[in-house]
Design brief:
Order of helices and strands of chain A: HHHHHHHH
Distance between the termini of chain A: 53 Å
Largest sheet of chain A: none
Number of helices of chain A: 8
CATH topology of the largest domain in chain A: Tetracycline Repressor, domain 2
CATH architecture of the largest domain in chain A: Orthogonal Bundle
Strand content of chain A: under 5%
Largest interface: A-B, 6 and 6 residues
Shape of chain A: globular
Oligomer: homodimer
Number of domains of chain A: 2
Amino acid sequence: MSIKSPDDPRVRRTRKLLQQSLNALLAEKEWNDISVQDIAVRAEVNRATFYAHFEDKYALLSYSIQEQFRDALNRRSAHWVTFSPENVRLLILVAYEFLSAFVGHCVPGKAQNMEEQSAIFISLQTQFYDRVLIWLTSTARVEKKPEVTAMAVSWAIFGTVLQWTRSERRLDANTAADEILARVLPMLAPYLSEAGVR
Amino acid sequence: MSIKSPDDPRVRRTRKLLQQSLNALLAEKEWNDISVQDIAVRAEVNRATFYAHFEDKYALLSYSIQEQFRDALNRRSAHWVTFSPENVRLLILVAYEFLSAFVGHCVPGKAQNMEEQSAIFISLQTQFYDRVLIWLTSTARVEKKPEVTAMAVSWAIFGTVLQWTRSERRLDANTAADEILARVLPMLAPYLSEAGVR
DNA sequence: CTGTTTTTGTCGGTTTCCCAACAAAAGGTG
DNA sequence: CACCTTTTGTTGGGAAACCGACAAAAACAG
């Protein structure tokens, strides 16, 4: 059994319930102590229905992070379709805040939740990559391989933000965003030249 | 299409959503300005599904009040099955608090929400009646017509509580409960004689 | 009053969800 | 190790929710 239409109200409802259930469980248990069963019971959703939507709990976590980050973005700006330095900066800013809040929840000493963390990080980086790639391909001026640029840019943003949020001395989110933006913009220059050179 | 099993998670979910939707709408609109359509849209439930559960918006309101009152009761005591003066007193007490809170929401001058209020009152009185009747019939000693006693008792409780909550001078809930209980207990004497006479 | 719009109930057809059951894998415990 | 319990995926049948459409009633405007 597989789901076809993500616009069906029942589908949205089920996924939201599973998402909320996982968040609630993460607040009181370790990632490894949470079973698919737990999630389904807490969400009051049948276990078979869970598997109709997600392959396992990792897939749900990935989906949940994606949604949360998307919400965090939409709360800042309404028009993300347009590719502009301002929007790139906002992306970095929200990433910094998002990861700061998340790292704040984790106990540094515990190596228990490494598996969970890495799953989240992979999911987030993919999110960055997809977004940047969409920006690049939506531009009129096309590079030979926009995927490579998108990969480099997304990793530059994600990696730096991750490193800084995990370091002892926390930077202000706005200054951090400015710093990172300054390093990333040169990579994006070919795509932004319309307003610059033209 | 009619619903058969109230234990189905989907049924509970749908009803809860419709209930919450109605509550939200009542907080910002008059009862007469709320359509079935509004409720369904806000609840993100199909309009046809609404009619599968409730005949109209009055039926939903009635159901909602019943549920809220049941919750208010369960929050006080765990074992409502047993028929005892203490539980009768608790029933009165919760009724007083419940109606006080409800009347507080209503604007006295507005005659607009009379229709809504009467619907709620009818629903509540029925609730009292059902509960008292269950108590009486669960007793070993059986009167000829317990329905009549239940009717009289439930109306005595409901009517008095309603009158007092609407009056200017508010009584303390506990003393009010004691006052009413003292008048009601004689009616229930035949059913309580086990511990008294025996 | 007439015409327009909104709301109301209701109806098949389709999709999703629930449920019970199952075998297989994973996790303890002696 | 064997034994037992829990968890995992998967399946088929049935119940509930979605959707679009419809006619009829109600509310409304000119």
